[in-house]
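Appendix C: a fully annotated inverse folding record. The material below is reproduced so that readers can follow the format used throughout the book. The structure is listed first as tokens, followed by the designed sequence.
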């Protein structure tokens, strides 16, 4: 299966490309700019994938509008060529959150005009017979744009103070887990599964953003001490942004399991693997450090 990847330097694009290197049944080629119909047809792709804007509620409106314009142009091209279009989008569309997990059938109704523009794009995409909207929890990874974890580690190791909301409850989502899930979805669709539509994917265990950052700091310090490195990490500062009631933004992912058999992954396990990988890359194994 051949897929075209918009914004390949995004952390999800990096994870998909890396995963494909270990497989022979799927490839991801970069699509650096919007093609015309003839060029798209000549590329012979089965699907086009668009990674998400990490936090459109905090992005410049011009960036969000440009993203939407690009996606809507791709919708028209993909419909003409009968190519599947997969659009990944942040859970921040659910601006006010919900007391219970948010079902896939729930339509976002943000007050913010910029976020409403994304909702309009989603409605246009759903008119394409071969579409997939994948709503994601906050992505974390080691490298690529919008990777969250990589820049957080750098800030902590650099002694920078990190501010994070303790009254925003989310489900951190490993970019590696999303890449694996997306490959499974794409291959099932390519094999004839007629399961187009909207799906949710996020990590297991709701947690505040502040607590997630605290877990990263604690586990990073433990690993640095294990390889004999000083662990004077930057301080954490808690923010309260939602008055007396924490805002919960938790996605219900049952439909992804029911339709494609894809389970949510525990973000704590995925985080541990990434931190192990980071320490291995920077310091080698504990045994290697001891021999120096």
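Designed amino acids, in order:
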């Amino acid at each position: 299966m051949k897929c075209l990847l918009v914004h390949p330097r995004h952390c999800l694009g990096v994870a998909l490309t890396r995963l494909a290197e270990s497989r022979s049944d799927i490839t991801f080629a970069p699509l650096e700019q919007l093609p015309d119909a003839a060029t798209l047809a000549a590329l012979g792709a089965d699907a086009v994938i668009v990674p998400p804007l990490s936090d459109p509620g905090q992005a410049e409106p011009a960036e969000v509008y440009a993203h939407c314009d690009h996606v809507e142009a791709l919708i028209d091209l993909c419909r003409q060529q009968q190519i599947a279009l997969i659009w990944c989008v942040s859970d921040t569309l659910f601006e006010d959150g919900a007391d219970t997990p948010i079902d896939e059938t729930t339509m976002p109704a943000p007050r913010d005009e910029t976020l409403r523009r994304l909702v309009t794009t989603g409605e246009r995409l759903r008119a394409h017979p071969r579409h997939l909207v994948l709503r994601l929890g906050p992505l974390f990874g080691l490298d690529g744009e919008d990777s969250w974890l990589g820049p957080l580690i750098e800030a902590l190791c650099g002694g920078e103070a990190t501010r994070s909301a303790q009254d925003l409850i989310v489900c951190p989502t490993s970019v590696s887990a999303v890449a694996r899930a997306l490959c499974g979805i794409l291959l099932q669709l390519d094999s004839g599964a007629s399961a187009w539509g909207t799906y949710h994917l996020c990590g297991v265990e709701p947690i505040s953003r502040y607590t997630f950052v605290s877990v990263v700091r604690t586990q990073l310090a433990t690993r640095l001490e294990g390889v004999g490195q000083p662990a004077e990490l930057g301080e954490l500062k808690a923010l309260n942004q939602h008055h007396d009631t924490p805002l919960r933004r938790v996605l219900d992912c049952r439909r992804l399991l029911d339709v494609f058999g894809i389970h949510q992954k525990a973000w704590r396990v995925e985080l541990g693997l990434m931190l192990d990988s980071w320490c291995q890359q920077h310091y080698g194994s504990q045994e290697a450090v001891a021999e120096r």
